[in-house]
């Protein structure tokens, strides 16, 4: 991990020894960790940044809401007119390219002007944003139409570079995950790597079937706090440990049409019967490929742990069980 990222994460997780914050606009307080002395961000500019947002809850003094490092996806941020004094835009205008800082913002004001509800179980009314400005595209005196074209080219170039990097490091990510977890994998001709922990019964699902399964999907890298980097799960305990638990989700075995799942998952499930358990490590070509989707970046390998609970044949109401 790069030194700059360590400094940012330390600040976001409350590990910095220095707690001297300056007073900004409105209720905002801030501390600048690093300043390169470059031109400050102005309204109308377009920035690429990495950041960590935390809040203090009754159960966790540094509950992470957003972490672009964990997501391996920087944010692109158009600097608009401030919605209220002391919002994030006003804080970013204190920085220039290469700068890093932490901002403490009022959650009531954020909720009022953004319409985004506050997280539940808060112990304090403050959100901390630890920001590293990677690049700045200054609007200057450009007409809106000209700057929009520049923004598009800027984003496309950055996105292409990110994808090329992901493509290059993908094999190393898979190898590192296998080694770190001491896995004895079998590699299928397709490139799928897997470990069957329990074969299940003799029944095998076909592409026209619906499968009832408990599962967890995660990235190969762990989060900065050491937790599994889970993006989806049917298990409430795992969701809570990974920080993605939602009161609106039912954490029960899911019924999913087998033919609509990623190719690597289809292959893995067809290797086990009901009662079977398998870990699958999907190269991106068997997952979401060069386009990605949702929280999944292009050229991202994925890990799925699946327990097959049942197979539902077409035109039947109940799953076949052991």
UniProtKB/TrEMBL annotation:
User: Boundaries of each PPIase FKBP-type domain copy?
Assistant: 208-312
Q: Which domain of life is it from?
A: Bacteria
The UniProt catalytic activity note for this protein reads: [protein]-peptidylproline (omega=180) = [protein]-peptidylproline (omega=0)
InterPro entries according to UniProt: PPIase_dom_sf (IPR046357), PPIase_FKBP_dom (IPR001179)
Protein EC: 5.2.1.8
Entry keyword Mitochondrion: no
Q: What Pfam family does this protein match (any one)?
A: FKBP_C
Q: Which UniProt keywords apply?
A: Isomerase, Rotamase
Question: What Gene3D superfamilies does the database record attribute to this sequence?
Answer: 3.10.50.40
Name the Gene Ontology molecular function terms of this record.
peptidyl-prolyl cis-trans isomerase activity
* Family statement drawn from the similarity comment of this UniProt entry: Belongs to the FKBP-type PPIase family.
Instruction: Supply the name of the protein.
Output: peptidylprolyl isomerase
| Species of origin | Pedobacter terrae
């Amino acid at each position: 991990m790069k030194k700059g990222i360590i400094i940012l994460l330390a600040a976001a997780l409350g590990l910095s020894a220095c707690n001297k914050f300056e007073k900004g606009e409105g209720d905002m307080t801030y501390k600048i960790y690093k300043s390169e002395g470059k031109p400050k961000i102005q309204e109308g500019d377009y920035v690429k940044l990495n950041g960590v947002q935390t809040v203090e809850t009754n159960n966790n003094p540094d509950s992470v809401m957003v972490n672009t490092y964990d997501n391996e996806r920087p944010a692109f941020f158009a600097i608009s007119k401030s919605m209220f004094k002391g919002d994030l835009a006003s804080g970013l205008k204190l920085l220039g390219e290469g700068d890093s800082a932490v901002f403490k913002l009022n959650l009531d004001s954020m909720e009022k002007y953004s319409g985004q509800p506050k997280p539940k179980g808060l112990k304090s009314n403050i959100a901390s944003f630890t920001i590293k400005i990677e690049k700045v595209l200054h609007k200057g005196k450009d007409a809106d139409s000209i700057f929009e074209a520049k923004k598009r080219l800027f984003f496309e170039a950055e996105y292409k570079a990110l994808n090329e990097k992901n493509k290059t490091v993908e094999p190393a990510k898979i190898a590192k995950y296998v080694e770190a977890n001491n896995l004895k994998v079998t590699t299928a001709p397709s490139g799928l790597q897997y470990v069957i922990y329990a074969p299940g019964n003799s029944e095998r699902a076909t592409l026209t079937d619906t499968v009832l399964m408990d599962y967890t999907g995660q990235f190969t890298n762990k989060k900065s706090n050491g937790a599994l980097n889970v993006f989806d799960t049917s298990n409430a305990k795992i969701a809570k440990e990974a920080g993605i638990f939602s009161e609106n989700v039912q954490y029960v075995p899911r019924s999913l049409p087998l033919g609509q799942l990623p190719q690597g998952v289809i292959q893995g499930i067809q290797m086990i019967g009901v009662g079977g358990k398998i870990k699958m490590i999907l190269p991106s070509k068997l997952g979401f490929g060069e386009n990605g989707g949702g929280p999944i970046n292009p050229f991202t390998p994925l890990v799925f742990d699946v327990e097959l609970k049942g197979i539902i044949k077409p035109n039947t109401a109940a799953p076949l069980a052991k």
